[in-house]
Amino acid sequence: MIGQRPKDLVFTLFGEYLLGVDSVWVGSLIALLRPLGLSDGGVRTVLSRMSKKGWLEAGRVGRHAFYSLTPMGRALLQEGQARIYRPEWSTAWDGSWLLLAYSIPQDARSSRDRLRDRLAWLGFGSIGNGLWITPHDVTADVAHLADRMGVHDKLIAFRARRVLGADDAELVQRCWDLERLHLDYVEFVERWRPELEAPLQAGEDDLSGATAYVRRFHLIHEFRRFTLDDPFLPRRLLPRAWGGDEASRLFSELRDRFSAPADAYVAQVLHDAPPRRSAS
């Protein structure tokens, strides 16, 4: 199995292949996740857990169970897809920062951890002592996050420009480990470039659908982690050596290479599902 939690595999499957599908038969999900190392029972267990968490909605037609994305699950995956296919290193920056401070008590650690995860997703980096900064204007996203988490009275945010202390490069180095991220991008390219340079398959003109599906799944599943680690800083804040551009180009070329046979394979698996009028 690819080195991720079963929940992450299900998210990748829905995000890449099933966003346009209203509901999916459990048997189809099992068939699509089995080549990735999940057992039939493991698939049923993770689907049930994700349903309880509010990411998926379970339905039944006769004796057949189906699952569909909830609005919350769909919104999360659509946001993630936008980051994968439209990395934003080239956005303009006026030199100002959004500063955010929060004060959440120790006995609300889970809320504090969720807030930190979401701030990192929005491109914030931590200066320390509950103070976070980002060059992105995500004020509306922060307000929405505060409302959703019920922590409006625990946050305060400012727009500001640096007037004293570390320059922008030093500030970036303090808040984000871009050197490690650059090396991760370089390693991704080194691992996947042979796939682009090699023939599709010895003695054949095209990959089989199942093989293309698994390779594309591995490719996307690995590249998706960059959307969690990369703050997508404006280009003027990036180091001169930046592997993100080459990694993004290689990712797009390989995904295009695998897409036609992989999509045909998934369509066939979905076609083999039992007929249904609705899945409510």
Whole-number average pLDDT? 87
Total strands: the figure is 7
Oligomer: single chain
User: Topology as H/E string?
Assistant: HEHHEEHEHEEHEHHHHH
Helical amount: 40-55%
What is the terminal-to-terminal distance? 32 Å
Low-confidence runs (pLDDT<50, min 5 residues)?
none
Percent strand: 5-15%
By secondary-structure content and strand pairing, the structural class works out as alpha+beta
Number of helices: 11
**Order of strands, widest sheet:** 5-6-4-7
Sheet with the most strands, sense and barrel status: 4 strands, antiparallel
| Gyration radius from CA atoms, angstroms | 21 Å
Shape call: globular
Plain-language structure description:
The chain is of the alpha+beta class and 280 residues long. 53% of the residues lie in helices and 12% in strands. The chain is built from eleven helices and seven strands. The strands form two sheets. Strands 5-6-4-7 form a four-stranded antiparallel beta sheet. It has a three-stranded antiparallel beta sheet with strand order 1-3-2. α8 packs across α11. The radius of gyration is 21 Å and the shape is globular. The protein starts with 5 loop residues before the first helix and ends in a 9-residue tail after the last helix. The relative contact order is 0.15. The model has no long low-confidence stretch (mean pLDDT 87).
